[in-house]
Design goal:
By secondary structure, this protein is of the alpha+beta class. Helix content is 24%, strand content 32%. A hairpin with a 2-residue loop joins strand 8 and strand 9.
């Protein structure tokens, strides 16, 4: 999927005009970091009316996936965490999209799964999903793997996906 899979920063131009960039957290520009934190705050704090501690110490050492639309606006993103940070398995977190049902979240998910495989040798991925998004994650092979629980007042479940046939 990437133009240069051996490089630490991977950028693709998508057929619909969006662009996906993946890089280690430590290589983010100040502007990229600002835009990612701004998007996460707009969706998780403001839109979902949920005051929570977004800056949780898990971003350093992660890979960040950023999806930009054809005008260059950051429209989706996520972080890929190595095994042992949130779960024994590699995991995806802070999956966020500015616009629903436009395919940007799917682009981020595909790239996040690719990065987990390439960078961490992941054979399994685990996530904590908001319950309203279970169907979205099922499209990528995730299945519910826990009872429902509240995180920051929002119903969640753990989901797991096997990445090997």
């Amino acid at each position: 999927m990437s133009a240069n899979p051996g490089s630490p920063m991977m950028t693709d131009v998508m057929p619909d005009g969006c662009r996906v960039t993946s890089k280690p957290f430590e290589e983010l520009t100040v502007t990229e970091l600002y835009e990612m934190l701004r998007l996460r705050s707009e969706v998780f704090v403001v839109e979902q009316e949920c005051a929570y501690q977004d800056i949780d110490g898990k971003d350093p050492g992660s890979w960040q996936v950023m999806v930009f639309d054809d005008s260059g606006e950051l429209v989706a993103g996520l972080r890929v965490l190595r095994p042992g940070v949130s779960f024994p398995e590699a995991s995806l977190g802070r999956v966020v999209t500015r616009f629903r049902s436009k395919g940007y979240g799917a682009v981020a998910m595909r790239e996040g799964i690719r990065i987990a495989c390439e960078q961490y040798g992941a054979e399994t991925l685990r996530i904590e999903a908001q319950c309203h998004a279970i169907g979205f994650y099922e499209r990528f092979g995730f299945r519910v793997d826990s009872a429902e629980f509240l995180e920051d007042g929002i119903p969640h479940v753990e989901m797991v996906a096997s990445l090997v046939p």
